[in-house]
Cyclic GMP-AMP synthase (Clostridium symbiosum), 336 residues
Amino acid sequence: MVNIQSEFISFHNKIKLSDENSELREKRNILLDKLKKNISQDAASYTTFNQGSYAMGTGIKPEDGDFDIDVGLKFDIDHDNYPDPVEVKKWVKNALDGHTKSVKIRRSCVTVTYQKDNDPIYHVDFAVYAANNSDGQMYIAKGKENSQAEYRCWEPSDPQGLLDHVQSLFDDSEDRTQFRRLVRYMKKWKNQHFSNDGNGAPTGIALTALACSYFSPQSSTDFWTKKKTYDDFTALKEFINKVKNAFVYIWDAEDETFYWSITQELPVEPKNNLFEKMTNKQKNNFYNEICKLYAKLIEAEGKDKKSEVCQIMVDIFGTDFPVVVDRSYVGTSESA
């Protein structure tokens, strides 16, 4: 197969959401400043940290233009002293209310949305944590403003632990960089082949956790120069094959049919199954899409023209993947 590593790098640079995105940082900092100034005197002290794909360096530019950033707020409280976690989330909402048209308490965070012509263009998610607990564990506040009591709870969480976990997987920083590229490729693939409605698509955190379990760095080292050259195509192909083989065939008694199903535990607290919200039918569809992706990669591997390989990558990832013209075709019309 022809080498398309340079095309993969160009593709990656086009889709990645840079950690230096000045507009996102500006929105975050403005809100953090407003929170600091306006938060109730009754509220506990807190510290902040970036979390999610922004912090991990696996974010991609959104298809709908609605950029987001996740911020963690660690309050110096014991969750046992606040049986209603929504009370703590209200400290945040009340401090930020009125900054934009939309400040909402969602189940897992407080979301501030910026709009232009009534369309969302940015949103900042503030996750609220109890950080000073007797058991040494951190807990995230769950529940909406109008939720029933049974849907308001504190759940064990370790948002910074996932960053540490990825760091511990690879000693070589360039291996970690390839890991992040692969996660971005998978997120772009997901956006191309799944609807954003409901729970039919694998989540970004699920794809990241799958990469933690099944990704292996792929590179070659020059004997003389010791220079390492990475191979993202092979890394992707091997990863997809392992994910495909992780599915199991199960019987669904309610639907009276067999489905392909998969489980993936979050490698840190709360260590939940990241596919638990998907139905068996949705997981079966995920399996079918993984199989199609693997078949496309095998097809590409058999091509000997870069233009043909890149066209298959466009079928997989969309038009952000660069299309090339083979050298042998350049100038053909003049020669004729």
In short: Confidence is low (pLDDT under 50) at residues 332-336. The first helix runs from residue 5 to 15.
